[in-house]
Structures are given as structure tokens and as C-alpha cells.
UniProtKB/TrEMBL annotation:
Its cofactor is pyridoxal 5'-phosphate. The keyword Amino-acid biosynthesis applies. It comes from Streptomyces rubellomurinus (strain ATCC 31215). This is Serine hydroxymethyltransferase. Coiled coil: none annotated. One of its GO terms (biological process) is tetrahydrofolate interconversion. One of its GO terms (molecular function) is pyridoxal phosphate binding. It comes from the Bacteria. Belongs to the SHMT family.
Length: 426
């Protein structure tokens, strides 16, 4: 592979400088921290579901000259001068998002997924309106009604959940709650549920009660882009996506919506909830969206799913209980209580051996949230590094050994070997 190929390939990870010479001279403390962070990553296996490795081409766009440009507003309607090139970059990002997701309208300015959720609610709702969303205990994000978040403070949330017997979303309950509460919006999507929402069913329920349908697909945006997950775009009024996570772009949000809602969504982002967009991030999003349209990226996305399936099978063999019996996505949520440990203890033991995963409260979890009975893992980063189903099956076995009480040292040794074999540019 040539240097240029490596930089433009959506799945390459090579050439990641931890810190430049200028940074070492100006601020050795932060430079040292960044160098240590690069080392930490190189020595561990990163299985946190929302993380990934930003592609080298995206990193280049992020540090490019648009980082300094103020461009409040939208292409052709800016509050600042000198925006012609920023406009061109944003139009490319918008056109690529519309084409990739077959969406009538796209807004690429949200600085985070939470900001995008705020804008989606602001476009559709008034304070005090009712919203039906997956309850936080069953896998909803904080922006789905947490009292610590604007959503729970400003709107009246009702939570639906999954069935205890099979762990799948209970659509009968969703329909019943929708009929009873007549919400103004229904949100489908989760941060830890490993199956895809039934978009047609959610649309039908929303239509029956005259509610908007919001698709919260930040976790699986990359799978939708690659055609590896059913697209919510034909069904949802607003789709809230992430450009980091599986898409390997800049940390940020992406809103897709119907032509009818375009103006309201744009106004809900700027000026309602944000100031000037970060134009370097917009440029980085354009790059990530172009890369996500390639056959190479599609193969990557499919491989995150086959890797996650191997991981789920391996964890089940080791005595853990994967929720819903497996996964359709890059993430696996598993009950660790059959092995007699809590989620928090599982997270600690794995971290001590270099396996980074997150404790996770499960639906109907009898344990207090700080302890929890589950763990959540994702295959985005390790797949970007080149690992596949064979390595993930082995990693599942390593997790199982740690939770069964085996000595940490030999597992840690194997983790370091695997990490080194795939560290090329982490
Ligand atoms: C990751 C995620 C978020 C939060 O994203 P931020 O960019 O950190 O705000 C919100 N909702 C869902 C469904 C997510 O997966």
C-alpha cells in the first residue's frame, strides 16, 4: 500500500502521530499525556461500544485550515464573510449524507449526538409535550428522558422496554403506551440493545396516534450507511445519527429528515441550539461520508457484525448470557451474573488485564446501577485494527477466563501479544 492509499483508505489506521514537535515544545505536559495515552491504547484491546479509530484522512481534515473559520448559518446564508470555501465543504458533506442515506435533507452541524437530539426535539415539540422512548433502564440514552438531562426536564417521557423472556422490544407494549399517552413523538433506538428496531412497526404505531417518529441510530449509523442494517430513513420523520462511532468520522451528530421538516430542523440547530458550526468537523464529516460509500467500508461494517457474533458465541460458551441470544450489530450486551460476578467487577478484572469494556445495567437488573449485572462490548475499534471473528472468539475466551477467576497474568500476556500484532498505528 502506498502512503496515499493508506491516508485515504476508510479502514486504514497507520500514521497516527501522538503529538507534534510544536506541541512538545509549547506544552510538554500535555504532549507527554498524549504520548502516554497512545501507549495505553497500543497496549490494550479497546472494546468500548461507542469508540473507534478515526480514519487518517478524517484526522487530516480535522486539523486542516477550516478549523479557524467562523461560518455561522448555512451555505449561502452566512453571518460571516469569507465563507465560499466553507460553504463548498458543507455542501459536499450535505450532498454526500443525502446520497449515502437516501435522505431528502441533511444537517451536518450538530457538535454531538446529544446536540442533535436536542435539535430534533426542538424542531418537533414544545416544552411539556409527551414523548415515548425506550426507558433508560432498558437501554435508552440519557437524552431519552433522564431527569439529569434537558430531555427529562422539559418533556414528559414515558418509557417502553424489552420483554423479560426474550429480551426483545415489546411492540405490543409500545402500541398500548402510545394509545394511552398519545405522545407527540416516539423515539426508537438504543445504546445497548443489540437488535434493530422494526421501523415499519414503529411507523405504523406513530401514524395511529399521530406522533412523529424519531430514529436514534447513533450506535449503528455505520451499519445503516453500509446497508448492513435496515434504514430508518424511509420511515422516520427525523433520524439522529453519529459521525464518530462506527462511521469513523469526527465526533459529532448528523440529522436526516423529510423535506417538509428541513427548515425546522435547520433552525433548531442554528440559531436555536448552537452557534457557528465547527467547519473542520464539517469537512471531516464530508470525508467520512465519502469513505463510508466505498466497498471497502461496506466490508468493514459487515465484519464488525460477524466479529460481534463470534464474540457473543464465545461469551455464551464461557458461561455468560448474551442478551437476546446474540446480536445483529457491532455490539454485544451480556449478563455476567451466571459467573457470580457483577458488571463492575467484570469491568475491573478485564481492565486489569488490558481488555477495555463497560459494565452495563441490564433490563430487569436486580443489582444497583453502580454494580450492574452486565457488560457491553463493541467491535468497531478492533475491526478497524484488522481483527476479525477468529480474534474476537479468542477475546471472548479471555474474558471468560478472567470472570471465572483464572489468574490475570497469562491473560494479560496474551492481550499484550494480540494488541501488539494489531497495533500498527493505533
Ligand atoms: C452515543 C449515543 C449518544 C450520545 O452521543 P454524544 O455524541 O456523546 O452526545 C446518544 N444517543 C445514542 C443512541 C447514542 O448511541
Amino acid at each position: 500500500m502506498t502512503v496515499t492509499d493508506a491516508a485515504t483508505s476508510p479502514t486504514a489506521t497507520r500514521g497516527r502521530p501522538a503529538a507534534s514537535e510544536a506541541l512538545f515544545r509549547a506544552d510538554p505536559q500535555i504532549a507527554d499525556l498524549l504520548a502516554a495515552e497512545a501507549e495505553r491504547r497500543a497496549e490494550s484491546i479497546q472494546l468500548l461500544a461507542g469508540e473507534n479509530l478515526t480514519s487518517p484522512a478524517v484526522l487530516a481534515a480535522l486539523t486542516g485550515p477550516l478549523i479557524d473559520k467562523y461560518a455561522e448559518g448555512y451555505p449561502g446564508r452566512r453571518h460571516h464573510t469569507g465563507c465560499a470555501l466553507a460553504d463548498a465543504a458543507e455542501l459536499l458533506a450535505i450532498d454526500r449524507a443525502r446520497a449515502l442515506f437516501a435522505a431528502p435533507h441533511a444537517n451536518v452541524q450538530p457538535r454531538s449526538v446529544t446536540s442533535a437530539m436536542l435539535a430534533a426535539y426542538a424542531a418537533l415539540l414544545r416544552p411539556g409535550d409527551g414523548v415515548l422512548a425506550m426507558s433508560l433502564e432498558h437501554g435508552g440514552h440519557l437524552s431519552c428522558g433522564s431527569r439529569a438531562n434537558f430531555s427529562g426536564r422539559w418533556f414528559e417521557f414515558t418509557g417502553y422496554g424489552v420483554r423479560e423472556q426474550d429480551g426483545l422490544v415489546d411492540l405490543d407494549q409500545v402500541r398500548d403506551l402510545a394509545r394511552r399517552h398519545r405522545p407527540k413523538a416516539i423515539v426508537a433506538g438504543s445504546i445497548s440493545h443489540p437488535r434493530h428496531p422494526d421501523w415499519a412497526a414503529f411507523r405504523e404505531i406513530a401514524d395511529e396516534v399521530d406522533a412523529y417518529l424519531v430514529a436514534a441510530v447513533a450506535q449503528t449509523t455505520g451499519l445503516v450507511a453500509a446497508g448492513a442494517a435496515p434504514s430508518p430513513v424511509p420511515f422516520a420523520d427525523v433520524t439522529v445519527a453519529a459521525t464518530h462511532k462506527l462511521l469513523r468520522g469526527p465526533r459529532g451528530g448528523l440529522l436526516l429528515c423529510t423535506a417538509e421538516l428541513a427548515e425546522r430542523i435547520d433552525r433548531a440547530v442554528f440559531p436555536f441550539s448552537q452557534g457557528g458550526a465547527a467547519m473542520n468537523e464539517v469537512a471531516g464529516k464530508a470525508v467520512a461520508l465519502a469513505q463510508a460509500a466505498t466497498a471497502e467500508y461496506r466490508a468493514y461494517a459487515l465484519r464488525t457484525v460477524s466479529g460481534a457474533r463470534a464474540l457473543a458465541e464465545g461469551l455464551a460458551e464461557a458461561g455468560l448470557r448474551p442478551l437476546t441470544g446474540g446480536t445483529d450489530t457491532h455490539l454485544v450486551t451480556a449478563d455476567v451474573s451466571p459467573l457470580g460476578v457483577s458488571g463492575a467487577e467484570a469491568e475491573r478484572r478485564c481492565a486489569a488485564a488490558g481488555l477495555l469494556l463497560g459494565k452495563c445495567a441490564l433490563p430487569y437488573d436486580p443489582a444497583p446501577p453502580a454494580e450492574a449485572s452486565g457488560i457491553r462490548l463493541g467491535t468497531g475499534t478492533v475491526t478497524s485494527q484488522g481483527m476479525g471473528p477468529a480474534e474476537l472468539a479468542e477475546i471472548a475466551g479471555l474474558v471468560g477466563r478472567l470472570l471465572a477467576g483464572d489468574a490475570a497474568a497469562p491473560v494479560a500476556q496474551r492481550v499484550r501479544e494480540l494488541a501488539a500484532a494489531y497495533a500498527d498505528g493505533v
